[in-house]
Design brief:
The chain contains ten helices and no strands. By secondary structure, it is mostly helical. The chain is globular.
Length: about 210
């Protein structure tokens, strides 16, 4: 698309010798907070369901990713074409029911095939909990961990809630209780996740399927 080529040209100009001094000073590490902020702003825009706002924030995320790719090229570590090629290959490889002759008609079958393929891609992962980013917010990391634990056969008690709103209100009340005690909810969740992860790893030594 012309718009895509225009964005690449703007990035090259900003990072070029006569470009923006601030842009030229950035590194892959200094861009990490910027990336995180832009993604969170996009998530907030999606919550609003305002098309113009989503388009604007999506554009910011696109540029942040282009910025990272251009720095990778500048440092000769990787390139935008590398990233695009690798993700295209991955999508084709992980969707054999679309691009190959594998039969999968339900979401459960598709997820099962997806996880089996991932096992061949990440041979360095020895435990089912490996691969969950430690930089995830504690709540997101906790839920990802629970999903993987359930796949390994762990059973969780599930209190009944009639709606997302009801569960959201329960979270709100728990946060209020933490604040009343002067406790930091993020820290509480992080420590709880670490405790459950340690116990699960000790009980499940890695013989279960890795995903």
């Amino acid at each position: 698309m012309r718009e895509w080529n225009d964005l690449l040209a703007i990035a090259d100009r900003l990072l070029g010798p006569q470009g923006c001094p601030w842009d030229r000073e950035q590194t892959l590490f200094t861009l990490q907070p910027y990336l995180l902020e832009e993604v969170h702003e996009l998530i907030e825009a999606i919550d609003s369901l305002e098309g113009q706002k989503i388009s604007e924030e999506l554009g910011d995320v696109f540029y942040a990713l282009v910025f990272v790719a251009k720095l990778g090229e500048k440092e000769e570590k990787f390139s935008l074409s590398d990233a695009l090629r690798l993700v295209s290959e991955k999508l084709i490889r992980r969707h054999p029911h679309v691009f190959g002759d594998v039969k999968a008609e339900t979401s459960e079958e598709i997820v099962h095939n997806w996880e089996q393929i991932k096992q061949t891609e990440f041979k360095e992962r020895k435990h089912i909990l490996d691969g969950i980013p430690s930089s995830l917010p504690s709540l997101a990391r906790a839920q990802k961990m629970i999903v993987k634990m359930k796949r390994a056969g762990k059973v969780f008690d599930s209190p009944s809630f009639e709606s997302e709103e009801e569960l959201g209100e329960a979270f709100w009340e728990l946060l209020a209780a933490a604040e009343a005690k002067g406790w930091n909810a993020e820290d509480l969740v992080r420590r709880t996740v670490s405790r459950h992860e340690k116990a699960f790893r000790e009980k499940n030594t890695g013989d279960e399927p890795v995903a």
